[in-house]
Amino acid sequence: MSEVAARIENLGKTFGGIIAAEELDFQVKAKDIMGIIGPNGAGKTTVFNLMTGVYPPSTGKVYLGDEDITNLAPDVIVRKGIARTFQNIRLFNKLTVLENVITAVDLHHRMYTIGEALVLNLPFIRGKVKRSEKELRDRALFYLEKVGIAHYHDHQADSLPYGLQRKLEMARALALEPKLLLLDEPAAGMNPEESMELARLIQTIQADFAITILLIEHHMDLVMYLCHHILVMHFGRELAQGSPDEIQRDPAVRKAYLGESWNND
Fold first, then answer.
1. Does residue 159 share a domain with residue 35?
2. Which contiguous run of DSSP H or E holds residue 51?
3. Which residues form the domain of 63?
4. Does the chain have fewer CB atoms within 10 Å around its N or its C terminus?
5. How many domains does the chain have?
6. Is 261 exposed, middle or buried (0-12, 13-18, 19+ CB in 10 A)?
7. Model's pTM, two decimal places?
8. Of 120, 152, 175, which closes a domain?
């Protein structure tokens, strides 16, 4: 039996009288790529927000491996091993591409800063700073190379085209060295050719880093190509779970979401 990377038990969230998620139960197998699909407003991003500590759940538990991470603060959850991207891209727009990734690398590789070296005024500290800065830069460049945008390292983040900003956000998430990577609509705004290129990149990332990926996506071709297991949500609840073939054949899914031609967005 495959090891479980994350487990959701009876997870629910209400905002006043509005039910955003209710009675959700699913597992994400280690080193797997799993998808969550459903119409707008189905509660998909709410699930990510509950898993990453943005919202406390109204009911249920979130486990990373065997560890209960329910109600932990978002920064603690990041350090436990969950990183994410966002439906609406969130970058440090006025920093360079490289600096965006360095901010994430630095969370895991704390080193002396230039300011500390100047205050201490110690030669061996100054040498360590130089080595540390080089290590941070090299590590950040490594992640940029993995997503294919290292040659943009000195560009300001908000100067990049939309698709490259998506890749930058992915590189920054990888720099947090996650066990579980959550991708919220990574192909949003992309045409079919771009979305399939992204799908191949996601496969490469999963294989190279041996991590688990959970993604939300509306591009059905990408989901069916990438995912081994799919959760379909509707009005905050589970409508179906299964393999891509099972989901495509499920009458309730076709009626509620996919339609007569499953690959029409």
1. no
2. helix 44-51
3. 1-81+178-265
4. N
5. 2
6. exposed
7. 0.87
8. 175
Q: Are 246 and 119 in the same domain?
A: no
Q: Is the Cβ–Cβ distance between 186 and 198 less than 8 Å?
A: yes
CA 91 from centroid of its chain's CA atoms: 14
Half-sphere exposure at residue 190, Cβ-oriented, CA atoms within 13 angstroms: 26
Considering the domain architecture, whether residues 148 and 263 belong to the same structural domain is answered as: no
- pLDDT tens for each residue of the chain, 265 residues long: 459 999 999 999 999 889 999 999 999 999 999 999 998 889 999 999 999 999 999 999 999 999 999 999 998 999 999 999 998 888 988 999 999 999 888 765 554 344 443 444 445 444 544 557 888 899 999 999 999 999 999 999 999 999 899 999 999 999 999 999 999 999 998 888 889 999 999 999 999 999 999 999 999 999 999 999 999 999 999 999 999 999 999 999 988 765 544 444 4
| 206/236 same-domain check | yes
Residue 72 shares a structural domain with residue 47: yes
User: Using CB atoms within 10 A of its CB, is residue 80 exposed (0-12), middle (13-18) or buried (19+)?
Assistant: middle
Last residue of a domain, one of 139, 159, 175: 175
Cα-Cα-Cα-Cα dihedral sign, residues 145, 5, 12, 226: positive
User: What CATH number should be reported for the domain holding residue 127?
Assistant: 3.40.50.300
Phi-psi region of 6 (alpha: psi -120 to 50; beta: other; left: phi over 0): beta
Q: How far is CA 21 from the centre of its chain?
A: 19
